[in-house]
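Narrative of accomplishments. A recurring question from our advisory board has been how the design workflow behaves on a single, concrete structure rather than in aggregate. To address it, we present the structure tokens for one chain from the evaluation set, followed by the sequence designed for it. No filtering or post-editing was applied between the two.
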């Protein structure tokens, strides 16, 4: 979803005041020294050094051969961001107060390699920076000892110090002396193009970083805010990970960090939006730690609510990730809800799921929701939201997909009914179904083979055609017509028992009759009526009379199976 759709901050606008980025050549030794002098800083939103030993040696060999190794991108700013205090096992000098520094946006692995190769002075023989150049074999190698190597093997850390480097040349044969001088000249003269940006806000840096980052690493608001809020006593990512760790036993430990960050921003008295999260950098370390503390406890209560009151066993079954952020704030403000308040929270959950409210959650919605939670904690009877419930045709039109909120609502509604297998009457393992590890627990009421034989295979995957069914029963049904496999069950247990069994699968009696007549279109419409009625009951709304509900248009879909996972803009959590 675009930033205009989501209502949150996107990329820089055309009026953003950029300094014209101009590349300038700089020698690699000079760049390394700028790093050690804290003139070039590695912000905490950069990933850790991940290059393998071969990649390190390959870069050094490219410099020796005078191959281009790409440019570096710097962001010159006076903004205070957390930065690394060491690079390539080297301690970085203290940054000068109130002095513009250059944050490295692109080129971390390359610049770290140059710094480590030239300035490492460590005591660990197995370090990746214990590097030398073999003059005889003309290649860089890793050493496994700190003992002075033979003269023809020159540690790269000697290169920045001419006296030390050339003292080794005296006893070398003339041809090796020439090789050594060429190596020294190359590393002394080799230049990299450095592009420096300035006059940018921290919010504008993210899109630039994402666009140019050669590793494909996406810079998130969490990364930016980690750098913007870092103090010796507060590391945002570590704190978020601690919250997620506390949720792991409750099976909600894989909630994404940005959702948790929204909860922390709300707990700090700000709200849920990007601007609210950005405002965290103005808060003190004590306030930030306090917000994390209360958000942690509230998040655990939110997970318990989802598991016990709704039947959501893990984050995989949660229709919208951002529902968790709002629930965390609800349980922060109302830690011990009354029975009536629990009912209101349940209605809110079903209502926002049913209406696909979080599919277009924008800044205005976030502000309204934050105010509604505050009012609820002050005594309001419910949690107002502007979601509008869709027509019953959604169950006929939308395809069943594992990342679709409407599909997840169907699964949760079925789980509420304690469904039984329509052939055997045994209880369905709803926990296994709701794990969403795969889609094998969900099956077509009108089988795929039957639909294909009748020229309707493109419509087989509609949500209203999906039930929970054991794998054994699915194998037995195969491609049989509903009239055949349901007819056999009806002959065995009677019509009333068949209807009762299918009611647990949210298949109403009228839809059973249509299935026994192999009338797919009528079945789909009547099952949709039943699903719509149940959804509105859970959301605390009144369902319209079934006679007013229209049939869905006979629209084909490209979806033809459960294994495909794609983004459905109507259902997916698309807020920025």
């Amino acid at each position: 979803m675009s930033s205009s759709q989501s209502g949150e901050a996107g990329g820089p606008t055309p009026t953003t005041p950029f300094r014209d980025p101009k590349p300038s050549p700089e020698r690699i030794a000079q760049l390394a020294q700028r790093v050690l002098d804290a003139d070039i800083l590695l912000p905490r939103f950069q990933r850790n050094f991940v290059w393998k030993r071969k990649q390190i040696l390959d870069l050094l060999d490219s410099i020796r051969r005078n191959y281009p190794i790409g440019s570096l991108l710097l962001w010159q700013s006076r903004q205070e961001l957390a930065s690394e205090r060491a690079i390539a096992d080297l301690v970085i000098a203290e940054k000068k107060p109130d002095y513009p520094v250059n944050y490295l946006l692109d080129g971390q692995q390359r610049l770290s390699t140059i710094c480590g190769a030239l300035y490492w002075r460590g005591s660990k023989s197995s370090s990746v920076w214990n590097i030398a150049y073999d003059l005889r074999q003309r290649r860089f190698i890793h050493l496994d000892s700190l003992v002075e190597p033979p003269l023809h093997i020159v540690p790269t850390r000697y290169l920045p110090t001419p006296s030390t480097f050339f003292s080794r040349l005296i006893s070398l044969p003339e041809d090796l002396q020439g090789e050594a001088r060429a190596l020294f000249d190359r590393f002394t003269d080799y230049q990299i193009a450095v592009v420096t940006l300035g006059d940018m806000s921290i919010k504008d840096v993210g899109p630039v970083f994402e666009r140019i980052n050669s590793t494909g690493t996406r810079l998130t608001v969490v990364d930016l805010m980690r750098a913007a809020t870092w103090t010796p006593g507060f590391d945002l990512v570590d704190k978020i990970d601690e919250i997620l760790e506390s949720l792991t036993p409750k099976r909600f430990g894989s909630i994404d960090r940005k959702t948790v960050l929204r909860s922390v921003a709300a707990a700090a008295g700000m709200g849920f939006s990007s601007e609210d999260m950005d405002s965290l950098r103005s808060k003190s370390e004590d306030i930030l730690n306090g917000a994390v503390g209360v958000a942690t406890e509230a998040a655990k209560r939110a997970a318990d609510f989802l598991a016990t009151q709704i039947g959501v066993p893990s984050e995989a079954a949660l229709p919208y990730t951002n529902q968790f952020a709002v629930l965390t704030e609800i349980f922060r403000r109302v830690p011990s809800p009354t029975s009536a308040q629990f009912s209101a929270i349940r209605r809110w959950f079903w209502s926002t799921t049913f209406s696909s409210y979080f599919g277009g959650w924008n800044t205005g919605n976030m502000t309204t929701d934050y105010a509604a939670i505050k009012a609820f904690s002050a005594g309001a009877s419910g949690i107002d939201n502007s979601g509008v419930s869709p027509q019953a045709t959604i169950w006929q039109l939308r395809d069943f997909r594992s990342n679709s909120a409407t599909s997840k609502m169907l699964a949760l509604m079925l789980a509420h009914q304690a469904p039984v297998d329509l052939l055997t009457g045994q209880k369905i393992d709803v926990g296994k179904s709701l794990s969403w590890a795969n889609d094998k627990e969900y099956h077509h009421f009108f089988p795929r083979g039957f639909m294909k034989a009748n020229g309707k295979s493109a419509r087989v995957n509609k949500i209203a055609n999906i039930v929970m069914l054991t794998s054994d029963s699915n194998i037995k049904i195969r491609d049989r017509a509903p009239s055949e496999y349901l007819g056999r069950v009806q002959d065995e247990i009677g019509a009333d028992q068949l209807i009762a069994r299918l009611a647990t699968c949210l298949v109403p009696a009228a839809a059973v009759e249509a299935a026994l007549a192999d009338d797919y279109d009528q079945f789909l419409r009547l099952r949709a009526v039943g699903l719509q009625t149940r959804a509105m009951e859970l959301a605390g709304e009144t369902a319209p009379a079934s006679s007013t509900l229209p049939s869905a248009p006979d629209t084909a879909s490209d979806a033809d199976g459960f294994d495909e996972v794609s983004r459905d803009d109507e259902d997916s959590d698309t807020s920025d």
